[in-house]
Amino acid sequence: MVEYIVSMMRRRSLLLFLLVSSAPFCFAGDADLYPKLPCEAPVYNSFAFCDTSLPIANRARALVSLLTLPEKIQQLSNTAAAVPRLGLPAFEWWSESLHGIASNGPGVAFDGSVRAATEFPQVILSAAAYNRTLWGAMARAIAVEARAMYNVGQAGLTYWAPNINIFRDPRWGRGQETPGEDPLLAAEFAVEYVKGLQGEYDTGDADGSSLMLSACCKHYTAYDLDRWDNYTRYIFNAQVNEQDMEDTYQPPFESCVKEGHASCLMCAYNQVNGVPACARADLLDKARKEWGFKGYVTSDCDAVGIIYEDQKYTSSPEDSIADVLKAGMDINCGTYLPRHTESAIRSGKAQEEDIDRALLNLFSVQLRLGIFDGKGAKKQYGHLGPDNLCTKEHRDLALEAVRQGIVLLKNAKDFLPLRKHEVNSVAIIGPGGTDTTVYGGDYTGIPCNPTSILEGIRSYVPRATFAAGCIDVPCQTMDGFDEAFAIAKDAEIVVVVAGLNLTEETEDLDRYSLLLPGKQMELIRAIGNISKKPLILVLTGGGPIDVSFAKEDPLVSSILWLGYPGEVGGQALAEVLFGDVNPGGRLPVMWYPESFTRIPMTDMNMRADPSRDYPGRTYRFYTGKQVYDFGYGLSYSKYSYKFLSVPEKITVSQSSAKDHIKSKPPHIVATKVVSTCDVKFHVKISVFNNGHMEGSHTVLLFYRPKTSIRGAPRKQLIGFERAHIKANEAAEVDILVDPCKHFSFADVQGQRILPLGTHVLMLEDLERELVIETEEFSVQNKKIEDKVDEKQLKKSHEEL
What is the spatial distance between Cα 572 and Cα 436, in angstroms, rounded to a whole number? Predict the structure, then answer.
């Protein structure tokens, strides 16, 4: 514990230093000393790196060649130092934009002409919408607000988001920041977010296309524990087998690079199989050489310092510097590299060439952002300013995101929606009823004009009363219960707002229990016993909660998960409660029972292991009981499905595949052998709305092998689409399926394998089978079938 406290004090000191040292960058207080942009005429525009007719790589090399060694070293921090003699101002790399412009990093400040920015719902709630178009639109809106703040000196251009780690354990405090537990869902979110934030101008060409902003996919890799038991993220060694690495932990990052063309990766604090993530040359090489990553790699903040100071992995600071630079890390969030790199070079442990390589990556991203283009740097986005923040368009987009993300978990006897003209009074109970600070989750800024749940409901029913019940979300005492009882007795409808906030789950804080905090459960049960009608339970928070008691309790009519809804959460919830919006969100993570907490958070294995009573993790492999399944979500309408078009058989052609097919069932083939593997097909689905309300419905397409195959997921999400369907009408949905990607999984060596034979597509309870074969496997099967037929025919003749 003493070591942990010392470590935290050092990190807090670092953050204070960064905030102070970066102030000149944010507010341009040194305008008389340094130019605001490089390459300003007439003095500083004659350098080769200012020549926009040259390729970016050439310009970056020209800039590196002009720097002295001390100047180079001072570029290796998130707060890169100015080089006045070359006209280079200081540059702050650390800004945050997880679900809106956040104030966590030193690159953003809200004390200038911009005082607030649109607060979109936390990522876990946006993910519940399963809507790629929506994700991209939010990222583009964030980019506009970020560029606008940059233009007035209140924000940077490089943003360390999204967080695309897998929500592996329900107790993880930062799971709220992620798109959930499924690799496909996380990958799809990553692609849309990155493309939207970077302006979709990056086509992944050799030189790197222009960028509106730079997005950073984090935390690479296998990072999903912050502080639990005696473990912290700073010292945790994530023991990950090759199988899980390939088909669970890495896919979001691969898609982020290959399809999203992210210009930044952040390496994590933790070790991966005994080696600090920022020193894993094999992982960083994989991103650049196999995935085609073109960008810079940053450490998490102080993640280089802890390699020696906390993890004791190296014997000196200089060894740590050498390890990360040679592994391919480019910049250190913190001051460790500026303080120790020169001595690392003097001792021969690092070379100046290692720094030059890093600087080429860093300057290339800055060049792609256009900041070295002189006056031209302000042309494309120079018109953006304070009027482009907190716009009605962005607020409406945030509202739509919450509408689509809210998940209806229970609705006994169709208690909801409420009939607005028949409800005379509503009691709202729970701190979250009026405390809008609960709605943001972590990595937030200052919202524009937050609407509370009380305000949202009062817009429908003016006679709405409020009592906190619990004095705060931890709810350790019954103080305030009596006031809640009093308004509950008088109201026609009671809404209890319970769940989590950042006192229970956040960065550097994991949970120990999956139950509601403190005495929240007691409050809900007591209110249920005195309210006139069964109460409505609204749950806030990002992590799964074991609400089995409420799920089965007839005194709880309905349960809705609101997540962290952002600035318009109160309005969106009221619209759902009173039927102006038909809920259609689906859980992006399975909700486990409290009994799951017996499993150590430190066990990174995804697959179940009965020999040690290990149930596995996430809906793909978990074999135990659950409260709510991944993808669960109700609606005010009933929907039915019909497969319109699914191929009966898919043949993969590859002459060499026969040498890699297992001779005994189950027959499998390595996907890398099927090099052409261009066998994508479309699944056309008819979705019928059998209800009396139109609705925005999420279609989730799953897959499973027909026969049990060791290591294969129990089921796997392979596609999703969102469709708006009018009452008593049908809509057609088209989902593209890539069998070699979607039906494959990793073997114990970490190699992707594709089972041949019969596969099952699933739409809730509806199933459709199709067969996958290779030409060789098909011929082989035909010969076997012919021999069987001959034997049966011969036996029949003998019997006759």
Answer: 13
Q: Can you tell me whether residue 534 is helix, strand or coil?
A: coil
pLDDT score at 8: 45
Q: What is the mean pLDDT of the chain?
A: 91
Does a cis peptide bond (omega within 30 degrees of 0) precede residue 583? no
Contact 687, 764 (CB under 8 A): no
- Give me the residue label for tokens 């989750």: 441
Token couple for 540: 């806030």
**Active-site positions?**
300
320 within 8 A of 308, measured Cβ to Cβ: yes
Cβ atoms of residues 617 and 172 within 8 Å: no
pLDDT at res. 205: 57
From 240, 225, 241, select the one nearest 170 (Cα to Cα): 225
The alpha helices in 232-391, defined as continuous H runs, are: 242-244, 251-258, 281-285, 305-309, 317-327, 336-346, 352-368
- SS3 labels along 161-228: CCECCCCCCCCCCCHHHCCCCCHHHHHHHHHHHHHHHHCCCCCCCCCCCCCCCEEEEEEECCCCCCEE
Strands 639-645 and 681-689, by their bridges, are: antiparallel
Residue 643's identity, in one-letter code, is: F
The Cα-based distances of 403 to 120, 234, 245, 409, 416 in angstroms read 12, 37, 34, 15, 15
**How far apart (Å, rounded) are the C-alpha atoms in residues 701 and 768?**
11
> CA 663 to CA 658: how far, in whole Å?
9
Identify whether the C-beta of residue 247 lies closer than 8 Å to the C-beta of residue 187. no
Cis amide prior to 739 (ω within 30 degrees): no
The residues near 610 (Cβ < 8 Å, ≥ 6 apart) are none
Q: What is the pLDDT of residues 365-415, one digit of tens each?
A: 999 999 999 876 667 899 999 999 999 999 999 999 999 999 999 999 999
| 3-class secondary-structure state, position 76 | coil
List Cα–Cα distances, 119 to 448, 479, 502, 663, in angstroms. Answer: 7, 32, 16, 56
Measure the CA–CA gap between 302 and 189, rounded to whole angstroms. 28
Supply the DSSP string of 715-732, one letter for each residue: -EEEEEEEEEE-TT-EEE
Quick check: 695 and 125 in contact, CB under 8 A? no
Rounded Cα–Cα distance for residues 631 and 639 (Å): 15
CA triple 761-765-770, angle to 5 deg: 20
